[in-house]
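User: Sequence in, structure out. Go.
Assistant: Echoing your sequence, followed by the structure tokens.
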Amino acid sequence: MNKTLNSKYAIVRGVAGTYDKCVKPGARKQEIDVELAIEQHNAYCAILENMGLELMKIPADGRFPDCCFAEDPGIIFGQKAVISRMKTASRAGETTSIKKALSIHKKIFEIRAPGTIDGGDVLKAGNRVYIGLSKRTNLSAIRQVESFISKDGYEIIPVKIRNTLHLKTVCTHIGNNCMVIAPGHFDDGIFADYDIIRVPKNESYSANCLAINGKVIIPRGFPKTKALIENKGFKTIQAGMSEFEKGGGSLTCLSIVYN
């Protein structure tokens, strides 16, 4: 549990020209600048490469406005990959390309009805797998995941969440036993064994970070969170995420990072 998170590869998917038609959670619908989103995505990919990852780049598909959020359709557990069954109908077709990419390195398992799950609800910390019970992820899917991986030494822990899209929207594991949390969305007593970094309420978006090879990518514009993470000994790298925040996405949403 007390380890730096090391990875070799990342699957990313381009930003579609239709991205402004993505599923925007919440009551306020902000206009998305697609060209800026493409620029931010290119910069994100460059950061991953500079951190030593080999990228597998899947082209965007305009039929799926949300397709840049590569994390949701597939979840990796060691040498296995679970292909999501996505509750959002407009996103169901995203799994085809992700399955093809993951099958190169991983043994494939698939969630069946009535299970639904998004990768954004799956938080891994060593052999512990916390899975958010959300509007997108249900108990049937969690039990199916458990049947796929429990014999590999993983412990599955369902987490009831509230007032958030996904579990990892408000919580991420950055290694060295540290959890970054936006308080108030679940019982954070489940993380009693961890060193918890609680981000300020006005910086809640920054609770989603991406830890790779001893460094932590954080969204640009959240100085208090940046300082809190650096005070734990991590080096941080900032990435522009404004257009993905408008689409309900965060740093981890844009890639599947693995060994």
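User: And one key feature?
Assistant: The CA atoms of residues 5 and 175 lie 5 Å apart.
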